[in-house]
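[SOLVED] Need 3D model of a two-part complex

Original post:
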Amino acid sequence: MSTETRPVRQWLLTLPSLTWLAVFFVIPAILVIITAFRPTDLQGGVGAGWTMATLREVQDPAYLPILWRTLWLSGATTLICLALALPVAFQMARVGPHMRQVLLLLVVIPFLSNFLIRIFAWKSLLHPEGPLTKLLIGLHLIPENAVLLNHVGTVLLVLVYTQLPFAILPLYAAAEKFDFGLLDAARDLGAGPWRAFFKVFVPGVLRGLISASVMVFVCCLGQYVIPQMVGGTSDEMLGSKIAQRVFSDRNLPHASALAGGLMLAVLVPMLLVVLWQQFGRKEAE
Amino acid sequence: MKRSRLPAFITFGVILFLFAPLVVLVVNSFNASRFGGEWEGFTWNWYVKLWAAGEVWESLWITLKIAFSASLAAMALGTLAAYSLHRFRSWLQTVHHMLITLPLVMPDILMGMSLLALFVLSGIETGLLTIWIAHVTFCLSFVTMVVLGRLQDFDFTLLDAARDLGATQAKAVKKVLLPLLLPGVLAGGLLAFTLSIDDYVITFFVSGPGTTTLPLRVASMMKTSRSLPMINALSALLIASTFIFAALSSRLQRRA
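Solution:
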């Protein structure tokens, strides 16, 4: 393929999307960081001048358990999603083209269904008067007065539910390109099915595995709707605090300090992954 | 050699897990019982109530207006972006590629928060315009990725052939590249449209008075238990339309 070199054309074609993202993605991200160093004003806006006070407020030890909960919930969600998505991606890549289309559609539909509705579905399923609670009580699997909602486990369950397609899709994209002859070769050479799966298939889809983990983990870090809707008052995540500072306290600088911290924690590793993939893209050519 | 059945079983279980809550929701939308714990008979009642809820349809209209205009803009910007990412190799495209990729992994709350900061600091009143801007921003990357995937399969010698046969560059693009690329662009547009209709978190941050989109309406309905069965009915309708959209979009992607 001939690569065009005329610089003017390149700039003209690149400028619209580049400008849009610079104005509405890069500058806002920088503004969040800047706002963290601004004082609040009484109307819930941002005042003039500079201050370090917000940064000191954010170091409140009360945030530590929330930070910890956010991290372990995100980590656990990622692990569970990967454990479920790996065999699914494996299966999807192995079946025939027609079945593959069907499976893909089945994974994509919940992914495209409204996010709130998926949470609502679980909320009504786990409601004390809901079908699942009644079923489990009927089977004597849970005690009569058990409450399935408003529990940190519920938050984890719904996190896994909403994030699972995000793990399956990149893994499937990688598994589709995987040469399954390698697995047969490993089996022929005496590897058991588990060993072949973990020593040949998993390294073969490593790139997809990394994309999937990053995608799920990062999405979880910013969650606030799920803990708010199916969690109890003690199941807040970092996102809950950011939303609370914006909408209840009208304290934009404080919210910005929290969001800015989260943003740095997310974007720096992401930049590294993107650079690594760019490097891989160049290498592959 | 015998293949393990385990992946097939897990896949079946996962699909069941993904769909069970949605199926229960749809079934309950016809259930006369308010909480849906037991089947108390078939009813259209919740759909009738939903039909009469004017504010829901008003929200749907706002949502559709935003989704339509935002996905059009994202289609135009995303197609250009994909074309330049595909055609050129330079430091500019490395930066461009990075900027396109990052919004895909930016948690919604951070995108909402940072756009809110932009609008507050620049004194722009939040409303339809700010929601539209936010939606174009997060749809842009998705459209670019879909079109980029299409472009990778495109045979660029076709353009050279058109040029050899006397077409100008502009004419070759218009008559050869765009028609062949169209299914990909439309698939990207459909994805943008669904994402825009679905978005709650980012919209919540940048919405203003009088711009209650459908997800925002659903969220406020979820707070009053009286309207819960109505959400079942609304959900069933939305799931059905997602089904149609996903099937349509997968057909578009396959045909090319």
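Edit: The mean pLDDT of chain B is 88.
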